[in-house]
Amino acid sequence: MVPEKEGGSVKNTRSTDSYHVPVHVPRWLDFLYIPTPPYESIGREFINKSRNVDLETLENSWLRFILDKRLLVMFSFVLFALCALVSICLVGISDASRKHDPQNSYIRFSTVTGFFLQDEVSTNASTFSFINTNFGLINRTYPTDTSYDPRGKKTQWQRFANQVFRLNRDSPHGTQYKLLYMGRHGEGYHNAAESFYGTPAWNCYYSLLDGNDTVTWADARLTPEGVTQAQIANAFWASEIRNQKIPTPRNYYTSPLTRCLATANITFSGLDLPGRHPFVPTVKELFREGISGHTCDRRGSKSYIQSAFPSYKIEPGFTETDQLWEAYQAETPVDQDIRSKVVLDDVFSNDRETYISITSHSGEIASLLRGEPSTILMPFCMLIILGAKSWVIELSAYPQGPLYLCS
User: Fold this and answer.
1) Pairing between strand 175-184 and 106-111?
2) Which residue of 6, 75, 120, 266 is surrounded by the most CB atoms within 10 Å?
3) What interhelical angle do 258-268 and 224-239 show, nearest 10?
4) 6 is a catalytic site residue
5) Res. 405: pLDDT tops 80
6) Residue 394 confidence (pLDDT)
7) What is the 3-state secondary structure (H, E, C) of 185-254?
8) Among 187, 240, 285, 289, which one carries the catalytic annotation?
9) Distance from CA of residue 58 to its chain's centroid?
10) Bridge partners, 350 (sequence order)
11) Per DSSP, what are the bridge partners of residue 180?
């Protein structure tokens, strides 16, 4: 039906009874109206004067367009806000699930076998040499070799590094793999003195002294033989980096005792290391040897360490003087194991790198890897452990994992 003009206006000739459809606009939607000349008067008149409008009139007005658009925008905004709120909640839940309550969980450490000769029962600890065995890395294939090295051009260490990368990439949440290069210091003057006097006399008398008329063994320095041992290790590292493409440590840690500080410096200085990961070790108090009344276990002052090894970093909270050593007193093996667990927790929780160097002592390395059978590592010895960390929802005091033999 075509409308007819009457008196300059359009008149709807359709029956209002058959076409009149009331449209209710609630008053709480008044805020949606934004004046837009020249339709401001039309819209305001519609809002203020009428709550029932013919649908045809509403369809033929710009007001419906304005209301529709404003409603769409508001609806979209509300929907976006709700989605954002849900996303924030989900992220908060996810983050919360990643945090481990120390009251209800602990970190369990374990070694991953099948990669190094030190793991094998057939390995003779008295004759094993890391220098003659590619650091003990077993010559074997890995499940990842097919895709990573289809032509067989990569070295054993390159293929192993790829396997470790895959282990970390595919590991479940809360599990982490790290390769620990654990080195015992070279021979110190305290070692030479014990050999000279004999263990019974050393333990009962001489170890309580600072030295004799010839040498000092309190916080013992390296002997010439100890320096040579570290130099041999340095040359072997250089060869492995050049020929085997061995992954070098990304971070370095050392005991605060001088024999370890010096061994680490000789072992890793001058190597072809990545520019992003130079040899700048962190001195950590708890990587020290088992604390006894022997003066060789008393560390130097913080000022001394900073002066003698200025490039080294010292961990926060490191005291100026040795607060842990006390004459004629010794920590028990249980206490040392607890201390070792604390420092290992610290490294695994705060160091994101996979390849880590720790220069320490035979007794402390044994504590870090407490298990049976046990042995004293001979100077100088490099022990490589592929370790795994996982969170366990219960309480425990000690690290898990066997002690690996090295000589």
Assistant:
1) unpaired
2) 266
3) 40
4) no
5) no
6) 36
7) CCCEHHHHHHHHHCHHHHHHCHHHCCECCCCECCCCCECHHHHHHHHHHHHHHHHHHHHHCCCCCCEEEE
8) 289
9) 65
10) none
11) 356, 385
Annotated catalytic residue 185: yes
Binning pLDDT at 50, 70 and 90, where does residue 404 land? very low
CA 293 to chain centroid, in Å, comes to: 35
Tokens of residue 84, six digits? 């954002």
Contact 112, 177 (CB under 8 A): yes
**Quick one: 300 exposed, middle or buried, by C-beta within 10 A (0-12, 13-18, 19+)?**
middle
Place of tokens 């837009």: 36
Distance of CA 337 to the CA centre of its chain: 22
Give the 3-state secondary structure percentages of the chain, helix then strand then coil, rounded to 5: 45, 15, 45
Say how many C-beta atoms besides its own lie within 10 A of residue 345's C-beta: 16
> Does residue 373 have a cis bond before it (omega within 30 degrees)?
yes
Burial class (CB in 10 A: 0-12, 13-18, 19+), 72: exposed
The whole-number pLDDT of residue 32 equals: 46
pLDDT at 159 over 60: yes
Contacts of 364 (CB under 8 A, 6+ apart): 255, 287, 288, 289, 290, 336, 340
